[in-house]
């Protein structure tokens, strides 16, 4: 199914289950298929929406990118399910979910899993111009490598990935990496806009994640008034591969009166 965003872009989604609606937002290198497992896990209690962010999968795109367009995409999905919905976001999708909540588009609860914010102890370089330049000359391999490096992936691991099937998945979505880098922001710190969030918010960090990601989650929780912060024991940034581990914390939070 599709909805039409404010700028005319078609946004493709899959809907499962019944109950209060929950929209699932993936991060970099994600489309609706990577959140489909979580959508299925939650479908016994909720109506779940797994969608292709613009530029990915079966969704359309626009010539000029802005984070506001992705917030409008979420607003179109929320309108489709009746005007209010909870939103779960992973990684850069968690930042998008928080910014959408701050924009006041009908989100009633928001969950952010490891928004990749930088902190004083764990700064992060701004590589959006470098990635754009690599993509402009068709260097998708370089763009992916640059993104992974700034995300903290060791160089030897990146080299190993290049011969694995996942590398083709990464390079196929390389054109959307500037979108994720734009969403997180040039200094990768929580924006002042998060102080406008007035709905219940939960920020989750993985107990097995590296300290940079866990500190980013804590920074996000500190930036959102009244936000809860929880640690999911035994999980790291790849939590979407183990969606059942998210069922209890999400169900408890999203159903809480």
TrEMBL record:
One of its GO terms (molecular function) is triacylglycerol lipase activity. InterPro entries: AB_hydrolase, AB_hydrolase_1, AB_hydrolase_fold. Keywords: Hydrolase. GO terms for biological process: glycerolipid catabolic process. Residues 23-244 form the AB hydrolase-1 domain. Gene3D superfamilies: alpha/beta hydrolase. Transmembrane segments: none annotated. It holds the Pfam family Abhydrolase_6. This is Hydrolase. It comes from Amycolatopsis rifamycinica.
